[in-house]
Amino acid sequence: MAAADFQIDEGGPGLTLRLTGDWTATELGRITRRLDDALQDRCIDAVDLSDMGRFDTAGALAIVQSSNCVLPQAAWTQRPEAGRTYAMVEKLERESAGPPKRSPGWIRGFAKIGRGIQDIGDEATLSMAFLGRLIVASGTTIKYLLLAFLGWLLMPFGAVVRGFDKDRGGRLLQTGQDLRSRKSIRWPAWFSQGERAGLDAIPIVAVTNFFIGAVIAFLGANLLTQFGAGVFTVQLVAVATLRELAVLITAILLAGRSASSFAAEIGSMRMNQEVDAMQVMGVNPFQALVIPRVAAMVLMLPLLTFIGIVAGMFGGMLVTWSQLSYGPAFFIQRVSEDPMMGQHLFVGMIKSPVFAIVIAAIGCRQGMAVAGDVESLGRRVTAAVVQAIFAIISLDAVFALIFLELNL
């Protein structure tokens, strides 16, 4: 086996290419670049194959790409089989589509912007459809809750009536039991989601808000002491924690923790076709998957917000005690005697149910939109977290403007 080589004879009437060695894929080496430099897109008029060994499609491709003209079949009379190989490769190279023409950068930029706007429109349309289904399912759930509550009221009333009228009292008791025993509300799912989304998040919520309150107290103590107003550090910590930071930090933590969890859980069920199986069995996926998660978040986020308030105030109290020598009794007295603290607490707590609905709805919406591949699952989980955090911060700004107009 000899390495491929060549010689170019320019002395005759045309350009003659003399091939030596084996022109195969394993023996070409760097011959292609050398041949390109030697020919410089000139046409080959004849080929001398007397000293050539083996010849395959790789050798033919090197000649086709280096020469600017097509060799006639008459040039391959010494080796007809090599001529056929060359003709086949030349035809494929000629008929194969070239690389797609790349559009100018400004056109690609506008195209990307257009696709982004279209994606935003599609996402908004699908989100509105999801919101409509969620409202319908929530209305049905509220109806069943009211019926169950009515059943709870009828039970003791029926027991009292049965003491005077056995038949009517028995019917009232039976009606109350029927209303209470309706299986439309999946209480185990509610409690399970409440435990995972709420109770399990207490440590991280408490610790994070504790340090946030401590940081606010440090900043207030350092800045306000310079003006002889260090005592107002207590009000700074209380107002910031009660009104904004506790609910905002807690909601952001649950957006990263619970929204991603909801999207991953429902998305995995979508990938495994479990949601389709539920529909085949006559189970409403919204009642079974979405409503328990939304209800759990609505119930748990106010509780976690209150825990965050307590933790943040405790962190601020420790810092004011250590830095300003204001004891816990003084801190609590300053907070309790301020008539505006109740209003600040109301402003902070009223936002938590809204944030809870947004977090759960976005997580479930992205989970329901997962396709059948893992890439889609990862993309939707990421979108759930990003959209939930963005929505929380945007809503908090809207609430701030509303309360400013209401003078709260």
From TrEMBL:
Q: Which UniProt keywords apply?
A: Membrane, Transmembrane, Transmembrane helix
Q: Which domain of life is it from?
A: Bacteria
Q: InterPro entries, from UniProt?
A: ABC_MlaE_roteobac (IPR003453), Permease_MalE (IPR030802)
Q: Which Pfam families has this protein been placed in?
A: MlaE (PF02405)
| UniProt keyword Transmembrane, yes or no | yes
Record GO terms (molecular function)? phospholipid transporter activity
Please list every transmembrane segment annotated in the UniProt record, as residue ranges: 144-164, 201-221, 294-321, 341-362, 383-404
Q: Name one GO cellular component term.
A: ATP-binding cassette (ABC) transporter complex
Tell me, in a sentence or two, what this protein's role is. Answer: Could be part of an ABC transporter complex.
* NCBIfam families per record: MlaE family lipid ABC transporter permease subunit
Q: Quote the protein name from its UniProt record.
A: Phospholipid/cholesterol/gamma-HCH transport system permease protein
